[in-house]
Structures are given as structure tokens and as C-alpha cells.
Amino acid sequence: MGSATLTLAIPDKLKKEISEIKGVNWSEETRQFLEERVKRLKILKKLDELTKDSDLTEEDVVEFGDKIKRGIAKRHGLEA
Predict the structure, then answer these.
(1) Helix (H), strand (E) at residue 66
(2) Helices within the chain (DSSP H only)
(3) Beta-carbon contacts of residue 26 (< 8 Å; ≥ 6 apart)
């Protein structure tokens, strides 16, 4: 797998703070962060596509989510 270089601008204060922390591979930390962020954004995009024609409100979705969580907790004997 090839690699590319990404250059970004950060505030001077952040650069100073980063420089003060030793033993951290900031390139690897940043790469991992970006990979995770891209995964999450792809999932959100898929969810948007799946729900674009839905009439459910945000409140409906929260209510369904709560019911699902309660059902899972009950199934595993974790209900309060």
C-alpha cells in the first residue's frame, strides 16, 4: 500500500503543546483518528441514504432506541 503526505495548519499554541509531549507518534495518532473519522462519516452517509424518505421524527427515533435498549437489557437481565 502506498502512502501520501498530508500537511495541515494548526495554531502555534497547539504546536507548542504537542512539542512538549514526548514519546507520541503524532503521525500515527493522526492517521488512526482520520481512519476512524472516515469510517464514521461513511456510516452516517449510509444512514442518511437509508432514511432519506422516512417520515420518522427525531423523537420517534429516540423512543425506538430507548425501547431497543430496554429490550436488550431485559434479555440480559440488566433491567433496572
Answers:
(1) helix 58-75
(2) 12-20, 26-51, 58-75
(3) 18
In single-letter form, the type of residue at position 48 comes to D
What confidence tens digit (pLDDT) does each residue in 24-48 have?
A: 999 999 999 999 999 999 999 999 9
| DSSP label at residue 33 | H
pLDDT of residue 77: 87
Q: Residue with C-alpha cell 503526505?
A: 5
pLDDT band with cut points at 50, 70 and 90 for residue 76: very high
Cell representation of residue 73: 437489557
Write the Ramachandran bin of 23: left for phi over 0, alpha for psi from -120 to 50, otherwise beta. Answer: left
